Structures are given as C-alpha cells and as structure tokens.
Amino acid sequence: MLNGYMLMRKNPIILASIVLNTKWAFMHFMHDNINRADILVRMLAIDDFYNKNDFGFNLYTEMQHARSRTNQFMPKHQIDYKDKFCDLITSFENGYNTDHPIILNKSKELLDGSHRMALSLYNDIPKIPAVVYDEDFSVDYSINWFNQNRLCHFIPYIMAKYEEVLKRCKE
Questions:
Q1: pLDDT tens across 17-66, in order?
Q2: DSSP structure class, residue 57
Q3: Which has the closest alpha carbon to 104: 39, 37, 18, 165?
C-alpha cells in the first residue's frame, strides 16, 4: 500500500524491508516537535471506538477534512474513512497483518501507515514491518500543522495522549 505521493513516482526504489521496534518508531516519528501528531489523533479515535472517550472520531473526521484541503496527494476516499478505520481497528484484535508494512522515507520517517502505527501502539504490538524507500519527501502533521489549519482545540487532547504514550514507551 503506497500513499498518493509514492504512487505518482514511476519506479520508487526500495532500499530495505525491515522490522521496527514500535516504541522506537513512535519516538523517532515524533522528534522534538511531535511531528506526527496525526498518529495521536488516530489513537484518540481508537479510544472512542472502545468507549474510552466520546470525541475521538469527531477530532479524527475534522483532521481528515483538513488534511484533504492541504494535501493534494491524499486519496479523497480517506476523507470519510471512519467505517474503514473501524474495520481496521477490529482487524487488529487478531494482531498486525504483516502483509501491509508501513512506508518510510530514507530517513525512516513515516510516509504511509499512520493508522497501522496508531493501532500497533494502542495494542502494544512490539514490532511492525516497514519498507524504506529512497525518498527525501516527508510528511508534517506536527502541532504547527494543527495550529496552521485552525485545529488548535485538538492540542490539549494531543498533548495528553502524547504524554500517555510517551510514558508507555519509556517503560
């Protein structure tokens, strides 16, 4: 499964197929500026699925709409992805399907697979498959992206979830 950007490339070059420690990957993807806050929003939606909050899917849907406005490569079918995401959440109750690795650039930054990454963290799956492409392209869904897209009301929820996951990663 490749994101829209990768599909536009004629012959993307695979550098490696690897297995990542999920906790290491989370720390790496977040950097110092919570570069992939979208993973945390997805985790909030998973909480909502399991009735641990009543707002996660609302945040998720709002984020997906903002992403579709700012990302020309985002497939439009992902805007209203809630039902498919619910199916994916349910499928993870049987573990990670290793036929669907996450996609990384050559700096091992996440290009595609944030739903799978969120579910792996949520379900304490220790290792996940990844494919590394010879690409410099990166994706920014940092706190700054949420501010720039008038999603400031997400930030307290994102930060709380970040602290929760960070604590689990350091255990």
A1: 999 999 999 999 998 789 999 999 999 999 999 999 999 999 999 999 88
A2: H
A3: 18
Average pLDDT over every residue of 144-155: 95
Token pair for residue 151?
């999603």
For 113, list phi and psi in degrees, rounded to 5: 125, 20
Q: Are 5 and 111 in contact (CB under 8 A)?
A: yes
Q: Are strands 102-104 and 14-21 parallel, antiparallel or unpaired?
A: unpaired
Integer Cα distance of 89 and 136 in angstroms: 30
Q: Write down the residue that tokens 């929820």 correspond to.
A: 157
Burial class (CB in 10 A: 0-12, 13-18, 19+), 3: buried
Specify whether the CB–CB gap between 159 and 44 falls below 8 A: no
